[in-house]
Amino acid sequence: MLVVSAGIAFYAQRSLGVDPVVARLAPWVFLAFALGFAVYRLALVAAGRYSPFKALTTGHRPIYDTIAALIAHGLFGRFPNLRVATIESGSDWVGELVPKMTKSFKQMPGAWGEDPVETLRRHVWVSPYYEDDIRELADILGSDHVLMGSDWPHAEGIAEPAAFVSDLGGFSDDEVRKVMRENGLALSIPRPA
Question: Total domain count for the chain?
């Protein structure tokens, strides 16, 4: 299991020569998270310079840009076993990225190796904030790509992780089991090369 920051987007480009490293990691889970902006935002709050405007316009850009870069630069085409789980980033960015990828694919399908939304659905798992629209996320990605997460005592966490289940209204028992346990467990098992 490897944990990296959002800066990994730069490594998605074949030209940087890191494909041999990614090839060795591909069977394992590859976690990406956008902690950098959260630390920056906390520093602004502490300094009394927090900007609601910046929070509204830049909050999820690191993870949005990271996933967009991984897909647009064809990383998953080169490494079909690679899986990415986004944590500490919420899920609002998914609903913004999917329509843009859909439009780009319709306009220039030859520029993509395959439908980028299908690539997203096959290779990316998302741990939403408990206040996110988790049903919408499951409808976009599939319930088998949604992860329960708790990062207590941080703002995006809840004190009792099992209470996350109360935010899964409208989910079947099978979907609840996947989100609360099975999806995360499956990511811990390497895929054969």
Answer: 1
